[in-house]
Amino acid sequence: MNPKVNKVRSLSIFDYIKPTLKITIFAVPKSFFGSVGMIQRNAIASWTRLKPKPEIILLGNDAGVGEIAREFNLKHIPDVKVNQRGTPLLNDIFARVHHHASYPILTYVNSDIILTGDFLPTVQQVVAQNPQFLMVGRRWNLDIFERINYNHQDWEKKLRDRIQKAGIFSGVGALDYFVFPKPLFRLLPEFAIGRPGWDNWMVGEALKRGYPVINASQTITIIHQNHDYGHLPGNRLEAFHGTEAQQNQTLLRGHFAGSSADATHYLIPAAVAENPRVSVIICTHNQAESLSRAIASILNQNYDDIEIIVSDRNSTDKTPELIKSYHNSVRYIRQSNADIISARNQGLEIARGEFVLFIDADSILLPNSLSRQVDCFERRAGSLEMVFSGWKTGDSEVQPWHALIPILTGREGLHGVHIWMLPNLWRLIQTGAILFRRSWVQRWGGFDSRLSPHAATLDLLLNLSSRGAAGICLENITLDCTGNNVEWGAIAKLSTEANQLIDHYFSRPTLRDWMRPLESLARYQVSVWLACLAYHTGEGDRMRQLLEKSRNYSPYSPQETINNFRERFINISREYGYSFDIQSWQNLGITEDMITQSKVSHAKIY
Question: How far is CA 279 from CA 285, 323, 442, in A?
Fold first, then answer.
């Protein structure tokens, strides 16, 4: 049972505080061999650069630990209790640190974590507001293959630039540091360090005891240096599923396993807290009457911590006069010869809200929509970057949660979206039904002006998700799209845009290694989806071309591919409300010979 309180609070953190607080950092490094040794040296060296310099205690007697402690003039406690496999036990580690630490604020950090200059200012402000607490947060995963030269003044800027290019935000269950005051957590079960479960126990135990659990993911940048598990005979499988991992899970049994999403408080920059909570950007062009209804739907929400921005694409109707009637309630920007994407990005540039929503002038927000969407962010304690919801056009409702909830929910990560979901995304996603964390949309450049409005939204979602953005699906209809902006058009146009999205996705530096082999599967699924749509729009020749193309990417044998075509056509037709059954498929006359004798190249068919 989750013991978290229902109400989650945000705390403001200022970025110009010069810290004076001294803390004790402790860690249990592995042997300093090979790349692991380099990674741990990078991490520990970053801790020594914090100002004021913390007390640092290294525990354990693995090879090189004592030497590193002497080199950096750190405390070293070599003798700690271990299990039968020689792995240090956390109950002894935490007890010894409580006894030997010079300062009342303790920080456990994994030995592959680089700390940056925002760490101590944040800790000091949290300590000033909370006598007892546990602070945790998400990390940025980054490949670092060289020793970092901390003598360069811009070492931190270079690391932040690398995060901007190729960093991936971790899931909510990856916890790599714990900040807390003595005597909290002096007594722990005999968890093995470096195996899963104990970190989630820490969060659950704090919640059970009524301590504030503070999620610092939005204000602290910590860097996890990616590594393998070569120090274990069974590599990663042993670390997460081996005997010691199972023993940790046994100790965790019956205890709530928490994550950063279960925090009672989350930190936000003070500059964000001083601004409106939500920015609603309305894109319009000669739609004064519709725009009036859209603005009214926002002003009539039961949530008023908002700013309204109208991004006008050079309207020649009564739009300027309408805006004047709202006095200072609406911010207005006007640009000539702008398309929808430019209007969105222009509004984004001046938006101040923690969250941002993009709607068109011919859409209206349904009652209570904003409060429900913001509540999703709050209930997940600052661990979300986007909230999806349903939408309607006329009498037709689109309920994406039926397809997206299995993907977007789960304890280990409130995951984003992936390219193999593209057919569903194209049908289910509506720009105005997504509330974004503004900083994430701005950080990675907003909407791609080379794409159509709907494709640009999907591209943005895929880009943010590839960088670790977490999302959840609200099971409510929040938007009425009088003029639905999901473009369908000819299959040729859809095919071009779908291939552009696939190309973008698999060329990103944030693409995980395990995803690269899935490119063929993504192209296969999209080709079959487009072929089915081509059939229902009367484009029989293009349907056959697309099926022939998909054969180049099929993971199945020829006969299995034919069977999969049939199943996908039936399922896709049902999803779109078309009539199609086995007899319909047989009437198409698609045979194994046709697709094996008519193989096309891997070039895209537009």
Answer: 20, 17, 13
SS3 200: helix
Distances 535 to 171, 488, 493, 606 between C-alpha atoms, Å: 40, 14, 15, 16
Q: Apex CA 536: angle with CA 531 and CA 539, to 5°? A: 65
Residue from 171, 135, 413, 118 nearest 263 by CA: 135
Backbone angles phi, psi at 140, to 5 degrees: -105, 120
pLDDT at 246: 84
Q: Extract the tokens encoding 601.
A: 């190249």
pLDDT tens digit sequence for 188-234: 999 989 888 889 999 999 999 999 999 999 999 999 999 665 554 55
pTM to 2 decimal places: 0.91
Contact 388, 313 (CB under 8 A): no
Q: How confident is the model at residue 566 (pLDDT cuts 50, 70, 90)?
A: very high
User: Given this model, what pLDDT does residue 598 score?
Assistant: 46
Choose among 242, 596, 266, 323: nearest CA to 437.
266
Identify which of 159, 139, 164, 140 has the alpha carbon closest to the alpha carbon of residue 215: 139
Q: 599 pLDDT exceeds 50?
A: no
Start-to-end Cα distance in the chain: 53
Q: Is 325 exposed, middle or buried (0-12, 13-18, 19+ CB in 10 A)?
A: exposed
Q: How confident is the model at residue 41 (pLDDT cuts 50, 70, 90)?
A: very high
Please provide residue 279's backbone torsions phi and psi, each rounded to the nearest 5 degrees. -105, 125
CA-wise closest residue to 544 among 532, 552, 526: 532
**Angstrom distances, CA of residue 410 to CA of 4, 178, 208:** 17, 23, 21
b/e map 368-404, b = 16+ CB within 10 Å: ebbebbbebbebbbbbbbbbbbbbbbeeeebbbbebb
* Structure tokens, 293: 């209804």
Q: Give the least confident one: 67-71, 438-442, 511-515.
A: 511-515
CA separation for the pair 261, 171 (Å, rounded): 10
Residue 373: name the closest of 305, 422, 440 by CA. 305
Q: Please, which pLDDT band fits residue 594 given cuts at 50, 70 and 90?
A: low
Give me the phi and psi of 112, to 5 degrees please.
Answer: -110, 15
Task: Tell me what pLDDT residue 1 has.
Answer: 57
Q: Phi then psi for 390, rounded to 5 degrees?
A: -85, 170
The mean pLDDT value for 30-47 works out to 95
Residue whose token pair is 């159509």: 452
Rounded CA-CA distance 528/508 in Å is 24
DSSP E strand boundaries for 368-455: 386-393, 396-398, 434-437
Residue 443's pLDDT band, with cuts at 50, 70 and 90, is: very high
Name the most confidently modeled range: 141-155, 407-421, 566-580: 141-155
Describe the crossing of helices 540-551 and 558-575 by its angle, rounded to 10 degrees. Answer: 130
3-state helix, strand, coil in the chain (%, to 5): 45, 20, 40
**Distance between CA 538 and CA 551 in Å, rounded?**
21
Question: What does the CA dihedral 244, 247, 252, 253 come to, rounded to 10 degrees?
Answer: 150
CB-side neighbour CA atoms (13 Å) of 327: 0
Those residues whose C-beta lies under 8 Å from the C-beta of residue 511, and which sit 6 or more positions away, are 466, 505
